Amino acid sequence: MQHKKAVAPSPDADYPEILDTLEFQRSLEAIATEQRGKPEQARAALLTFFRTVNAEGRAKVREIFKTEGLGMACARRISWLEDQIVAAAFDYATHHAYPGSGNFCVTAVGGYGRATLAPGSDIDLLFLLPGKQTETGHKAVEFILYLLWDMGQKVGHATRTIEECLKLSRSDVTIRTAILETRYICGARALAQELEARFDGEIVKNTGPEFVAAKLAERDDRHIKSGNTRYLVEPNVKEGKGGIRDLHTLFWIAKYFYRVRDTADLVRLGVLSKSEYALFQKAEDFLWAVRCHMHFITSKAEDRLSFDLQPEVAAALGYQSRPGLSAVERFMKHYFLIAKDTGDLTRILCAALEDQQAKEQPGIANVISRFANRRRKIPGAADFVEDRGRLDVAAPDVFKKDPVNLIRFFHVADLHGLELHPNALKSITRSLGLIDDDLRGNAEANRLFLSALTTRRDPQLVLQRMNEAGVLGRFIPEFGKIVSMMQFSMYHHYTVDEHLIRTVGVLSKIEKGEGKEEHPLASQLIKTIEDRETLYVATLLHDIAKGRPEDHSIAGAKVARKLCPRLGLSPKQTEMVAWLIQEHLTMSMVAQTRDLNDWKTINDFSMRMQSLERLKMLLILTVSDIRAVGPGVWNGWKGQLLRILYYETELVLAGASPKSPAPSAFRMRATSWRMRCRTGRRASARLMSACITRPISCRCRSKTRCVTPASSVTSTRTAGRWPPWPAPTPSTPSPKLRSLRPTIRACSRSSPAPAPRPAPISSTPRSSPQPSAARSTRSMSAVSSRTTRTSCAAPPQSPA
Fold first, then answer.
1. What are the tens digits of pLDDT across the range 564-599?
2. What DSSP string describes 163-222?
3. pTM for this structure?
4. Angle at 210 (CA atoms; ends 209, 212), nearest 5 degrees
């Protein structure tokens, strides 16, 4: 008996270089003929044949992909190959294994429904039943599923009638989305056509706004789970912000709301321009190429672009190193630029959706809606209006008429606390060409930008909005060079531009006092800063020269000297910004890699600081920089080191002479001999610094000499600015100390008088001779040895 073969349709032409379909069908017929009456042997032979065809076909797809490098073409070839296997399995099941059971339909849903499959993607199938299915029909469905599972494929499936599909899609947006992408593969085509027609008429019609809101909310939730930024240095290519799933969301929304079958139809409807549609295709092809390479390299469905995979994918895509940027860094910069383009397309589509939705409202409802949500004028900004809490343009030619409005727009939004209207963002994206040298040199535009940067509300939000819209990189070309630039290291969590913007955000939080517990010193010092504009500009620009052959600190200082006068900063402010950028790594490097008990370390560092104002600004910049690297990078140990370095350097800048032997002798004695009070409290670096400038008294009120800090101990230069010392807590003395207590008490009773306190160090020479450092060292050594031998010697005398 002759029967018509089930031939799977393809969105493109056949791919004979992957699979010869005629030879494929002849081989299936041969298996059916040879194994007739032997169901077990026939199934084993069929399974072996399908495995061979699938493996050889995918190997050919990979070879072609390596040669041409087109991601969408690779995904379509794999989908076409899967179509042939599914159709062949259906044909064998309904005509040989269970004859007469072919009254159902096999359709593809999900990514497979779009005729695109990555090498490790799941195979999502929907078996459409005409009604109550027969026993042989159920067995035929099971035969297909078990055959695909035994091949090692990950198959997700659902077996439903048309009524069940419609009922579930009304209550579940996920099922509604899956049915929206249904694509016929084989079987009873009439069932697929009926489902499509009824779904369009009963579900899609008049529910566009509801579906759009649900998909955008779903997208926002997904972004929050993935870090809510597209600039993670290990992004998720599929689920992350700016990834393939965001493009799918655009496709779903467009297909559902505008009821189109292809994204190209959006150009005909005027939703996207030709250039924007070309950008959509470019982004889609690049992301699919990256994902296919990841799956081929790992031999599994790996969608997280980890540090281990990035060099291999970059090499597979043909990226080469350039001066200042490695191949992997160039690849990742391209990836983040594509992710940013995806965000631009989302904003454009959302603006078009709002306009279309407003037009489609019925007459009286439209009038009421316009009256209730009428656009309000903004005082002092005639070119902008408020539309339901969002800032929009008053006319389409606002930016063309006055390009300064491209900067003023974000300043007004910050000033009035407004969200940004998608229509305005679409206009900004299409007006970026107006940002030229004339606008960059405009004094008003630079004043507005500086005001937005130093706002006391939320400068991070303003800068992120400007960066997302592409304005920031155009207005400051040096910043545009580091947009989406990644540093290939485990230390950094974000791209360079995202790191700089987050650093400004951390600085703003410190200024507002939100981080007193984590960085108390920086929170105190920022209130005493003389010029906050300088600090904010330096914070934004401190890594702006990364990716250049020259050291980025030195190159960044050169950029600052060129850029700051344009922003309206004075020569003094410009030099301070350049100095902060050039030295922005110095404090953290010294604090974490040098011995802070060495007086030369403090002296050398203070020589580089030269003034207390520089020291304060550099500390705040260093704290903000470390905090903005990524979660978990800042810790209490780093904060303590920075505070010690600041206090020690502040002391030197206050007038303590590094040539005086007294500070060194006291530090050596307090550090080596480990002086303790009777409570066992150890001396601290801050206490040692305080002891250099004024006498101390012991909280434990012992008659013997003690270095436990008293509440009155403060620096003569910085009195009242240090936080108060906590009350000493008793600690358990060591066994050795307990054994020495009787001897120490006896020595204390026999001691004629307590040791004199150290006199304050002055900047002028004293008339009385001072002991040399060598003699202090020898005295110290002798005291240490006598203490070790448990003699009854009194504690050593402090240098005069």
1. 999 999 999 999 999 999 999 999 999 999 998 888
2. HHHHHHHHH-HHHHHHHHT-EEEEE-HHHHHHHHHHIIIIIITT-HHHHHHHHHHHHHHH
3. 0.66
4. 65
